[in-house]
Write a structure and sequence with these properties.
Oligomer: heterodimer
Number of helices of chain A: 16
Radius of gyration of chain B: 19 Å
CATH superfamily of the largest domain in chain B: P-loop containing nucleotide triphosphate hydrolases
Strand content of chain A: under 5%
Number of strands of chain A: 2
CATH architecture of chain A: Orthogonal Bundle
Order of helices and strands of chain A: HHHHHHEHHHHHHHEHHH
Number of domains of chain A: 1
Helix content of chain B: 25-40%
Helix content of chain A: over 70%
Strand order of the largest sheet of chain B: 6-7-8-3-9-10
Bound molecules: adenosine-5'-diphosphate, magnesium ion
CATH class of chain A: Mainly Alpha
Number of domains of chain B: 2
Order of helices and strands of chain B: HEEEHEEHEHHHEHEHEEHH
Structural class of chain A: mainly alpha
Largest interface: A-B, 38 and 42 residues
Distance between the termini of chain A: 28 Å
Largest sheet of chain A: 2 strands, antiparallel
Chain lengths: ~425, ~270
Amino acid sequence: MTAGDKQAPLLDRRDERVKHESGIGGTIRAFFDRVRAGDLGSLPVVVGLAIIWTVFQTLNPIFLSPNNLVNLLFDCSTVGVIALGIVCILMVGEIDLSVGSVSGFASALVGVLWVNNGWPVVPAILAAIAVGGAIGFLYAVLFNRFGMPSFVSTLAGLLAVLGLQLYILGSTGSINLPYGSPVVNFGQMLVMPDFVSYGLAALAGIVTFAAGYRTARRREAAGLSSRSLGGLLFQAVVITAVLEAVVFYLNQDRGVPWMFGLFVGLVVAMNYALKRTKWGRSMTAVGGNREAARRAGINVRFIYTSAFMLCSMLAAAGGVLAAARLASASQQAGTGDVNLNAIAAAVIGGTSLFGGRGSAYSALLGIIVIQSIASGLTLLDLSSSLRYMITGGVLAIAVIVDSLARRSRVSHGRA
Amino acid sequence: MSDIADEPAPMREPVLSLRGISKHFGAVSALTDIDLDVHAGEVVALVGDNGAGKSTLVKILAGAHQPSSGTIAFQGRQVTLPDPSAALRLGIATVFQDLALCENLDVVANIFLGRELSPVRLDEVSMEIRAWTLLNELSARIPSVREPVASLSGGQRQTVAIARSLLLEPQVILLDEPTAALGVAQTAEVLNLIERVRDRGLGVVMISHNMEDVRAVADRIVVLRLGRNNGIFTPDASNQELVSAITGASDNSVSRRAGRRSAVAGRNPEAHP
Ligand SMILES: Nc1ncnc2c1ncn2[C@@H]1O[C@H](COP(=O)(O)OP(=O)(O)O)[C@@H](O)[C@H]1O
Ligand SMILES: [Mg+2]
């Protein structure tokens, strides 16, 4: 990998017991070693997605058509944003069962404030998200001050917030958002112009390469092992090529929805926050070992508060997007399988229910799995009863994978 | 460096001073009326049998537990330590007996936990270099600092925990059985390190069951027994004195055993701690 053989060994390569895999074969071997030790990453979900897509495509050739995939991306974005909040709360090893209700309440609030009370739409949306933050803050207070387990407080919240939603919607029970308004357009049809989507796909590769190159140079200068230029280029080219291919395919139909762009933007931002900031490090630490984090001087209560609030705020944001998608705020918004889908997406994507392990990208991967199942079954004209059963089954499988991987990590000393 | 170390430690004001510290866990009195002074440039060994309250005392000083009563003075000022971050801010670093590492994080992340460089854009390269420097100072044998701590052996984790406490550049460092899980070479390395930080003018509190280690580095030996002060000794105190202070009886299985051995072998019982 590096040219350190001639000089003194690199700072992090002095222990001769460690075999450092190099080359493509070595990378693949190291990958299988990691998987066997229970470090599954996003492998199960990628395999699962391949199976699901193959099955549905054979059953109905429309499934993988650009048109259906664009619809799929629109549908992903709403619950995906909620799932991103779930990733946050799972990171610290807690849960929020009320995200569905909070999203429904937020959509109702936007309807009431904007359509019924004549607020401008932006303050209405901000108010809905702020109310979501307040709900999360309440959970955090219950958790930090009274030690109330989050699954109980949020289960109570599920009912209470649903009650609020029904209350503010009143007897009519449903508010239509005006067609043609920017919000509804955003939720139903706005897509990126081709050059924007191609440009963003290329940007992803460029940024990956630039960041990787910068790190490699700094590590090299400091006498640490670093990735080779070829490897970095190869990775960047693969990322760009895959993304450009996807964008090209989607552009055969309407193109990449702006709403999906917003969702991916939030995922990338959250990934940065969790992986590259002190706050994210603290979140991971608190989820891994709360007492150790406390003894390291981390303000554990603040971390929990931020996780609960972010989760509820993202749930509210997801609710607003759902209202835009449906052009209505109704009593049904946020009920049914929204809650479970959001939680299932995070877990299916690879975020552990046991805390301290996960990634923002699991919300993206997981929701694509969930929505693929939903979309495939809809195309087959199967009722929601079957969809519920299958989604429930997939969630169970994801949790089993998570639990087995955890057990394997413990026995391989990688917990 | 030398003018600090040359002065006899007890002449100066203690950097850390406890008076009348008690701690109850429900009906259990883990500590009763403990007094303890730690001076700059001094190694205080805290010894006592299992359950004597040593770890509890260390956790109080680290801000992890709150004392039920008593006062703590740091550099002459009375302080409260409501949480671990308060103790860290004052410059009291602790290596806990139960280590307190996050197993899901890698070695670098654990060493820098709570004190990461550039909070909104973590400087992983600088942190990794600093981590390797600290670990090399400790002669640590850690294969990779990018593996989760869960994959390390007990001794390696101990080294990570010690490296972590040194990062802070503390005034006082508390080590709760730091050598219990270490091999021969590493134990020597940790004892050397304790002497080095002492010579830099830090106050060190070390808990150990190994009298040989204690004698090797301690300037004073403070004995706890059943949660109470039970004497302060110098390192040249006889083994018999120490053992009876620790166990609370001059006639006990340890001293009888030592007596038998010395009678048989004609050797000094202090060689067999
Ligand atoms: N968190 C706790 N809750 C209840 N009792 C405790 C707790 N921590 C320590 N104790 C009790 O306090 C006493 C002293 O324990 P400790 O300080 O760990 O002793 P040691 O000197 O072996 O380190 C023991 O009797 C122990 O059972
Ligand atoms: Mg102890």
